Amino acid sequence: MPIKWVDELPLAEKKIFCRVDFNVPLDGEQRVSDDTRIRAALPTIRYLLAQGARPICASHLGRPKGKVVPELRMEPVGVRLAELLGGDHRVLVTEEVVGDGVRKIIDEMREGDVVLLENLRFCPGETKNEEGFVKELAALADGYVNDAFGTAHRAHASTVGIASHLSIKGGGFLIKKELEFLGRLLGEVDRPYAALLGGAKVSDKIGVLENLISRVDLLMIGGAMANTFLKAVGGSVGASKVEDEDGLAAARRIVDRARSKGIELLLPVDVVAAGEIDATVTTVVAASEVPADLMALDIGPKTRALYADKLAGAKTIFWNGPMGVFEKEPFAQGTLAVARAVAESGAISVVGGGDSVSAVMKSGYAGSISHISTGGGASMEFVEGKTLPGLAALEG
Prior knowledge:
The protein is an alpha/beta fold. The protein folds into 2 domains: 6-177, Rossmann fold; 186-384, Phosphoglycerate kinase, N-terminal domain (Rossmann fold), CATH 3.40.50.1260. Helices cover 35% and strands 15% of the residues. The protein has 14 helices and 15 strands. It has helices at 36-50, 75-85, 100-107, 124-128, 131-138, 173-185, 206-212, 225-232, 245-261, 301-312, 333-344, 355-363, 376-384, 389-392, and strands at 15-19, 54-58, 91-93, 114-116, 143-146, 168-171, 193-197, 218-221, 264-266, 270-274, 283-286, 295-299, 316-320, 348-351, 371-372. The longest helix has 17 residues, at 245-261. The N and C termini lie close together (5 Å).
């Protein structure tokens, strides 16, 4: 059965467990330094409040590995959520994930209150989807709404287990938007359809590459994974990061499949190279002729111009992964140039989470992108064609 959405559920006076993705960065003073993910969940939370529901929001933060880590408590997130909600809305942050104290806070909620549970991953039962922990979570609420697309590929207690214990269940507005845009990439699209993939490893994206190669008209490769492709087709990449023989073989398969299907596959023609990633002195060299003592750390100016020209003619664009070590200023220009080209293309454009989101935010062009996914791993698995456990749990 199809997923029901939050605006199709009976919510009035119901306690609704709302799985959100508040896995946000905190600065040295324990303040939220990027509230993008909190803002993304606001439409669903505000809708729950408007319908008279009592939202019980729950998220993980960082990787505490089943233990209480004071630096990963949810209190700073609750402070920022309260600021964003504004008005008369109180955000009550619990000191535990489950237990008598948590139930008391929920039972005493006033209209307009939001409860934010302590970090779900403080409990080992969360990632293990342990039935006992699942039942404790389910006992807190009358219904369940999942609006955490970034964890939809995880079969955890709060994303899968709890859904089988509550008959009122559905997806939030953020997940609905994610599926609307990501789903377009797997169906009929306006063409030309261009995919731009960067990042570190071919092996991490082999499933996505193989699925896209049968759908796109144009595939462009950047980032460290381009080195593996370049070496696979006979290039000299110097001291650049390259995968093992399995990665090289995977790259060759993608090249051969693209050729057999008549898909245009572009690799960098020049790169910005240096002896180390902390270098301040760089040089531009041919992508297939990198000196032995240098490594490719960004796409070069000719490649930026080539990729920008191709993107300008596209009608649909999917982008995942930076074009270089973009967090280092000398090697950020390729990624920023691509962000600008995607934004100015006028195409339906989808950025698939992860480091690409940071790059788009840094570029200042986020407002010109059709959709920026909140889920790196989830968006990639979805585009790969996999069934996401957190979505499957909402069906029926």
